[in-house]
Amino acid sequence: MTLVPSRRQPANATRCERCTLHARCLPLGLELDALESFEAIVQNPRPLKRGEALVRQGGTFESLFVVRSGSLKQSVAQEGQRDQVTHFYLPGEVVGLDGIGETICYGSVVAMESTFVCELPFGRLEDLAEQLPKLRGQLYRCMSRELRNDQRMMCLLSGRTADQRLASFMLGLSERFRVRGFSPYRFHLSMSRSDIGSYLGLALETVSRVLARFQQQGMVTVAGRELTIHEMEALVALAEEGVGRHSGG
Amino acid sequence: MTLVPSRRQPANATRCERCTLHARCLPLGLELDALESFEAIVQNPRPLKRGEALVRQGGTFESLFVVRSGSLKQSVAQEGQRDQVTHFYLPGEVVGLDGIGETICYGSVVAMESTFVCELPFGRLEDLAEQLPKLRGQLYRCMSRELRNDQRMMCLLSGRTADQRLASFMLGLSERFRVRGFSPYRFHLSMSRSDIGSYLGLALETVSRVLARFQQQGMVTVAGRELTIHEMEALVALAEEGVGRHSGG
DNA sequence: CGTTCCGGTTGATTCATGTCAAGGAAGCGA
DNA sequence: TCGCTTCCTTGACATGAATCAACCGGAACG
Question: What distance in Å separates residue A135's CA from the closest CA in chain B?
Answer without folding.
Answer: 12
